[in-house]
Design a protein that fits this description.
alpha+beta, six-stranded mixed beta sheet, 5 helices, 35% helix, globular
Length: 144
């Protein structure tokens, strides 16, 4: 997961952020302690290729916060993110939350808008040293 995160940020997000920004963002994944915290506080789903190699992952917590969505640079535009989002939305439904919130990069904004997410606010979020622009987004669920 750590390598997939780093590779995705450095390559995919480089089209919307500067080299300095993606390097700073990618360095957020260097902390083993942070990964343990994320794994303990979120339910993760993964996508694997035919060789059983992780090519994407996403996560959801019990409050309906979608913490992560990353698809490997070599597996973009194959429907993997759509499948992962469907899985974590089902998890959110099982948790009984009324809406999902997430913080979305410039790169992912259009994808989430197409999936019914709306921008709540634009913000500058501190990665390690730098502040990067992203979007707080939300989708209301139709839990019955």
């Amino acid at each position: 997961m750590k390598d997939l995160f780093r590779t995705t940020v450095l390559n995919v997000n480089a089209r919307d952020y500067t080299e300095e920004e993606v390097k700073d963002w990618a360095s957020c994944g260097d902390s083993e302690t942070r990964w343990r915290e994320l794994l303990a506080g979120n339910q993760y789903v993964g996508a694997f290729n035919e060789c059983n190699v992780l090519v994407g992952f996403s996560s959801m917590n019990k409050d309906g916060y979608l913490n992560s969505m990353f698809v490997h640079k070599d597996f973009q535009h194959r429907g993997i993110a759509t499948q992962l989002l469907s899985e974590v939305e089902q998890i959110a439904g099982q948790y009984g939350v009324r809406y999902i919130t997430c913080e979305v990069s410039l790169t992912a904004r259009t994808f989430f808008e197409k999936k019914g997410y709306e921008i709540v606010k634009i913000q500058n979020y501190k990665a390690n040293r730098l502040e990067l622009t992203n979007f707080v987004m939300r989708k209301v669920l139709n839990n019955k």
